[in-house]
Design goal:
The complex is a heterodimer. By secondary structure, chain A is of the alpha+beta class. Chain A folds into 3 domains: about 150 residues, Periplasmic binding protein-like II (D-Maltodextrin-Binding Protein, domain 2, 3-Layer(aba) Sandwich), CATH 3.40.190.10; about 130 residues, Dipeptide-binding Protein, domain 1; about 220 residues, Dipeptide-binding Protein, Domain 3 (Dipeptide-binding Protein, domain 3, Roll), CATH 3.10.105. Chain A has 16 helices and 18 strands. Chain A has a 6-stranded mixed beta sheet. In chain A, helix 9 runs antiparallel to helix 11 and helix 15 runs antiparallel to helix 16. The longest helix of chain A is centred in the first third of the chain and has 20 residues. Chain B is an all-alpha fold. In chain B, about 80% of the residues lie in helices and about 0% in strands. The longest helix of chain B has about 35 residues. The radius of gyration of chain B is 24 Å and the shape is flat. The mean pLDDT of chain B is about 85. Chains A and B meet through helix 1, strand 10, helix 7, helix 13 and strand 15 of A and helix 2, helix 4, helix 6, helix 10 and helix 11 of B.
């Protein structure tokens, strides 16, 4: 008995040791010059059509290559296509691909691979998140809706190196859409061979500067140099490790410990201290993103009371919010489209030039006109998704509205998914927090979110003038005239006050002095192929 | 014994079914879905996605499909990690969590029992008070405070150990997470051992052993340690539970791709299949652990077996 028990105990001990020592197979890239980057979460997928998030797009831009790409400073430049022509009516784009372009298995990248990728993007069976990205391409919306077969798509490959895109309406920002990963080419044979699992490490073919070597969900994505990339000679790095770090404070610690060269963000707390400590390593740059509060325009008290909405918007001290409450380089927002967008000058609220005192006086007058006052104060609920920053902002605005107007605001914080569901239902919401990050560098990505009937129009804004201006803008081939319509549309919308723009986002990164080639840009795109790494500081 | 074990296993099946049904209803009742986002999707795109992931089916049918998959050992595809199945994710994450938990547990038992025994033998002295003060601190400081402080000191200042999991491939990346996870358990076990040891040392059979001329170490090793371990053994169940819940925080802070981290993220992302998969997995595990503890208790204390 004692003997068997001893044996059992020994077996248990050995099993435990095996457990402790097992599972240590390693996979990070560690030979040569390897850049260590932080990533705030795993990509949903490296199948470009199942991916959706910003971080997924960041990784996909390193692995794949579209017809066009962006320079470190955010300028469009040729990528897989070396040149292109646009017809006079703006409806036909002809791209000429590079003859040297290769997949990571040595196969040629052909125009047919782009057509294959684009058809898969719009095919209903794919369930792609950005299926409507190329809505301007002939028949794309009908294919997404299941009314036409995929081969009806206005994308053709007359020969291996020529791709023709036919548009249903002029789309001056088409090129910036073609830098989006969901428009990248796909290798048909590998998709046919591996099916839904083609995007796994060891199977995923890449036509970009790097190849996926390993992916440990929740921890690491390891990329190594793609020797077959047409511009491989210009790639300085031998590999990139994307470390998944969810907490920004943990990411900062890893940067401090020298384990990361580039962080995906910087913690909001003690920002002044970080700035003093890191100086030029801290990169803060304007970013195509807006943080705003929306009104529920389907219900009272806001449905029929634009004066009240205006009063609330004017009573917010945006400078105070951006500089004192946040203090991380954010710009106060007086428009819906952020500054820095190509071919556009954002229109601002008419009250922008007024002083704080003048604004508040006017806000009080409007508040009275709207039917409220000391005897009958407005009582509203403000909903935001749980986060320290959101809370700080909500508390400040609650006190601004109370001090300036006497509004009684109840703050309600909700889990993100709950807030989204409430916003979508538009039943209980009154004022809610939201934001928008531009998908491409054009005012359209912002202004189209408030068009009637779109799912992104959370305030349920509906204005015939706005719709007709947006429609006329969409018909223009001439960039200058299109711009005038868009700017006028924004002016009309701002005057209706469906939203309170609060501030424009900034991108924040810590970049080690060892890293070269870094450029700040409004899109916050930082292709690893443009970066280099020196062995010493 | 075999009959008893079999009965326990069979008895667990309705429990598991109930857990699955409740978890299924709860994740689907939570507001929002796996594909909701601030950038809301156009209706036809959203419909295509729901069809592609078969979320357009009525709930009872989804549940039936889930159960039939479960019987075949298929936990379905993850909605958040779209290139992976739930089984793959759990299969990769669980060994890590187990490794982390087992090491933390081993450390906690060894250090906790030693410290507790020493404190009991030196009852009332300066050493005893120091051990007890340390253990009180260990119990009261939460993991999410201990972890960053350890990282700041050992990784950022001294550069002895990596701050994050994926930065190193060696065993060094285990050190800080294991210590963080073990600290509160060391404290509990030390206090339990001390109290129980003091109680045992006052018993008649210990006095008899001493009267036979045995030294303190021999008395403790041969006679006192085993009976003094009973409360510690009973505490193993709650301790394992505490380590499982503690690992959620530790895994997130150190970036360890373990089960705890996936569980939290899956719940927040409404990754239905992953949440369900982990719940089912944990439920099965808890049933199993309860069984093992019962059997072990019987093996150590014959009175339990014969009662």
């Amino acid at each position: 008995m004692t003997h068997t028990r001893k044996l059992a105990a020994q077996a248990l001990f050995v099993a435990l040791l095996l457990v402790l020592l097992g599972g240590c197979s390693e996979r990070s890239v560690d030979a040569g010059l390897v850049l260590q980057r932080g990533l705030p979460a795993d990509p949903e997928s490296l199948d470009q059509h199942k991916a959706r998030s910003i971080q997924a797009a960041d990784v996909l831009r390193d692995i794949g290559e579209g017809l066009v790409g962006y320079s470190p400073t955010g300028l469009l430049m040729p990528a897989a296509a070396e040149r292109w022509e646009v017809s006079a009516d703006g409806l036909t784009y002809t791209f000429h691909l590079r003859e040297q372009a290769r997949w990571s298995n040595g196969d040629k990248v052909t125009a047919g691979h782009f057509v294959f990728g684009l058809r898969r993007l719009v095919a209903p069976a794919t369930g792609a998140f950005y299926a409507n990205l190329l809505a301007a391409v002939v028949n794309a919306p009908e294919i997404v809706a299941g009314e036409l077969p995929v081969d009806a798509l206005g994308a053709e490959a007359p020969d291996d190196l020529t791709l023709v895109l036919k548009l249903a309406r002029p789309t001056p920002y088409l090129l910036s859409l073609l830098a989006h990963p969901s428009t990248f080419p796909l290798h048909p044979a590998s998709v046919a061979k591996f099916g839904e699992r083609f995007a796994r490490p060891g199977k995923l073919l890449s036509n970009g500067a790097f190849v996926l070597q390993a992916w440990v969900p929740g921890s690491l994505l390891a990329l190594r140099r793609n020797e077959y990339y047409w511009n491989n000679a210009a790639t300085a790095l031998d590999g990139v490790n994307y470390h998944v770090v969810i907490q920004d404070s943990a990411e900062l610690n890893r940067y401090r410990a020298g384990e990361l060269h580039v962080t995906s963000t910087v913690p909001p707390d003690n920002f002044a201290g970080l700035r003093a400590q890191y100086g030029s390593e801290l990169h803060v740059a304007p970013y195509l993103g807006l943080y705003y509060y929306g009104f529920n325009l389907l219900r009272e008290p806001f449905k029929s009371n634009a004066t009240l909405r205006k009063a609330l918007s004017m009573a917010v001290d945006r400078e105070m919010l951006a500089e004192k409450v946040l203090g991380r380089g954010e710009a106060p927002a007086y428009s819906f489209v952020p500054p820095g967008v190509d071919n556009y000058l954002p229109t601002v609220f008419s009250f922008t030039p007024l002083t704080k005192h003048e604004r508040e006086t006017l806000a009080r007058r409007l508040y009275k006109e709207a039917g409220y006052g000391e005897a009958k104060p407005l009582k509203i609920e403000l909903r935001y998704n749980t986060s320290d920053t959101n809370k700080k902002i909500a508390v400040s605005i609650q006190s601004m509205w109370r001090d300036v107007l006497g509004v009684e605001t109840t703050l309600i914080n909700e889990e993100f998914q709950v807030l989204l569901a409430n916003m979508r239902d538009a039943e209980v919401t009154q004022v809610f927090r939201s934001s928008w990050i531009g998908d491409y560098n054009d005012a359209h990505t912002f202004l189209s979110t408030l068009q009637a009937g779109t799912a992104t129009n959370m305030p349920r804004y509906a204005s015939a003038d706005y719709e007709s201006l947006m429609k006329r803008a969409a018909e223009q081939v001439d960039l200058g005239r299109r711009r005038l319509y868009l700017e006028e549309a924004e002016r009309v919308m701002l005057a209706d006050h469906p939203v309170i723009p609060l501030y424009f986002y900034v991108s924040r990164h810590l970049v080690s002095p060892k890293v070269g080639g870094w450029g700040d840009n409004v899109l916050d795109y930082h292709y690893s192929q443009h970066l280099s790494l020196s062995a010493t500081d | 014994m075999l009959r008893y074990t079999l009965l326990r296993v069979l008895g667990a099946i309705p429990t598991l079914l109930l857990v699955i049904a409740l978890a299924f209803l709860m994740v689907h009742a939570a507001p929002g879905g796996p594909f909701d986002d601030e950038r809301a999707l156009p209706a036809d795109v959203a419909a295509n996605i729901e069809r592609a992931y078969r979320l357009d089916e009525p709930l009872p049918r989804q549940f039936a499909r889930y159960l039939s998959g479960l019987v075949r050992g298929d936990l379905g595809p993850s909605y958040r990690y779209r290139d992976y199945t739930v089984s793959e994710l759990i299969g990769a994450a669980f060994p890590l969590s187990l490794q982390l938990g087992a090491m933390a547990m081993a450390l906690a038992i060894v250090v906790g029992v030693c410290a507790g025994t020493v404190a009991a033998l030196q009852q009332g002295t300066y050493l005893d008070r120091t051990v007890m003060a340390f253990s009180m601190t260990g119990i009261s400081i939460p993991v999410f405070v201990v972890a960053p402080v350890l990282v700041l000191f050992f990784a950022v200042k001294l550069h002895w150990l990596p701050a994050g999991w994926s930065s190193s491939a060696g065993a060094s990346r285990m050190v800080l997470p294991v210590i963080t996870l073990a600290l509160p358990q060391i404290a509990y076990i030390a206090r339990l051992t001390r109290a129980s040891m003091i109680d045992v040392l006052g018993r008649d059979f210990i006095r008899t052993a001493r009267a036979q001329g045995l030294g303190t170490l021999t008395v403790v090793r041969l006679h006192a340690l085993k009976p003094a371990m009973l409360p510690v053994l009973s505490y193993m169940g709650p301790a394992i539970a505490a380590i499982v819940t503690g690992s959620v925080v530790v895994e997130e802070i150190f970036g360890i791709p373990g089960l705890g981290q996936f569980f939290i993220r899956a719940a927040l992302n409404r990754d239905y299949t992953l949440v369900l998969g982990i719940v089912v997995f944990y439920a099965a595990l808890i049933v199993l652990l309860n069984l093992i503890v019962d059997v072990l208790y019987g093996a150590i204390d014959p009175r339990v077996r014969y009662r």
